[in-house]
Design brief:
This protein has 4 helices and no strands. The protein is mainly alpha-helical and 92 residues long. It has one domain.
C-alpha cells in the first residue's frame, strides 16, 4: 500500500491537473478558438453547398453559437441556486 505521503502527492498532482483543465475551460483563448473554428466550419459547409456569400453568412451562426456558450455559466449558476434552495426545502 502507498504511504500517506505518496497518496497526498498523487492527490496534489491530480488537483493541479484539474485546476489547469478548469482554467482552460473558462479561458478567453478557448472561447476565441470556438468562435474561429465554428466560423470556419460553417463557412466551408456553406461554400460547399454553394450558398451565396458563405463567409458573410457564416457570421450569424458562429456568433449565435458563441453567445449561447458564453451565457451558459449564468444559466448554470441560476439553475444550481434554484436546485440548492429546492433541496434545502425538501430536507427541512
Amino acid at each position: 500500500m502507498d504511504s500517506l505521503e505518496e497518496r497526498v502527492q498523487k492527490i496534489e498532482e491530480r488537483n493541479i491537473t484539474v485546476e489547469q483543465d478548469k482554467a482552460w475551460e473558462t479561458s478567453w483563448t478557448r472561447k476565441f478558438l470556438i468562435v474561429v473554428f465554428t466560423y470556419i466550419a460553417i463557412g466551408v459547409f456553406l461554400a460547399f453547398i454553394h450558398v451565396e456569400r458563405p463567409w458573410l453568412s457564416a457570421i450569424v451562426p458562429a456568433l449565435a453559437f458563441t453567445l449561447s456558450t458564453l451565457t451558459m455559466p449564468y444559466f448554470k449558476r441560476a439553475w444550481v441556486q434554484r436546485n440548492a434552495r429546492k433541496r434545502k426545502v425538501e430536507n427541512e
